[in-house]
User: Which sequence fits this backbone?
């Protein structure tokens, strides 16, 4: 890159611009310093920024993006061994985040009609809050799974093989893995006091 400077030695007494070559040796330390700063910022800023992006992403995060982020972190770990990485040490569980998002989506699709915000509009004493679940003898994910699959009382079953038919939903049935995700989501929300109840109503 050439540096331009102004000199009054042109014809007619006007100012002219002519190139002046900068000293190459003066630029080398600056270039090395800039490269070091870029490496430092990449290592310091980029991983937390991507972590925040994943953590704050909406429920409709496409799986392709998640796959690309996983590949990026794997590649990053190979290229910079010894540098701590957020996902490799379990600080944030990407799989757990995805399961929670899927559970929330399933809850919004299948359960929210009766259980808005963890409540129960049909039978007020049978909410999904921890105290009601414990009082009704539903304390484990397996028990939540069983009730969701086969139904109980006024709640219809959503399982593919739910019987008797009168106890099962007339709507779309859920697969076993979907009911497992729902049970995990409900148990997790119950332990947290249903903090995402505002998001579930949308």
Assistant:
């Amino acid at each position: 890159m050439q540096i331009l400077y102004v000199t009054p030695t042109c014809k007619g007494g006007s100012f002219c611009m002519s190139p002046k070559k900068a000293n190459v040796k003066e630029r080398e330390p600056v270039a090395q310093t800039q490269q070091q700063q870029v490496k430092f910022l990449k290592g310091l800023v980029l991983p937390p920024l991507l972590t925040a992006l994943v953590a704050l992403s909406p429920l409709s995060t496409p799986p392709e993006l998640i796959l690309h982020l996983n590949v990026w972190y794997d590649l990053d770990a190979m290229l910079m061994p010894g540098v701590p990485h957020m996902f490799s040490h379990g600080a944030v569980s990407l799989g757990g985040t995805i399961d929670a998002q899927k559970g929330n989506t399933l809850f919004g699709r299948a359960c929210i009609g009766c259980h808005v915000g963890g409540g129960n509009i049909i039978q007020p004493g049978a909410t999904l809050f921890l105290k009601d679940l414990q009082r009704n003898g539903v304390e484990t994910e397996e028990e939540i799974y069983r009730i969701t699959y086969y139904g109980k009382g006024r709640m219809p079953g959503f399982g593919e093989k739910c019987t008797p038919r009168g106890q099962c939903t007339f709507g779309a049935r859920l697969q076993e893995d979907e009911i497992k995700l729902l049970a995990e989501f409900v148990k997790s929300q119950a332990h947290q006091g249903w903090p995402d109840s505002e998001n579930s109503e949308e």
Observations:
- Confidence is low (pLDDT under 50) at residues 66-76, 82-92.
- The first strand starts at residue 3 and ends at 7.
- The helical segments are 24-55, 63-79, 94-110, 130-135, 141-150, 176-192, 197-200.
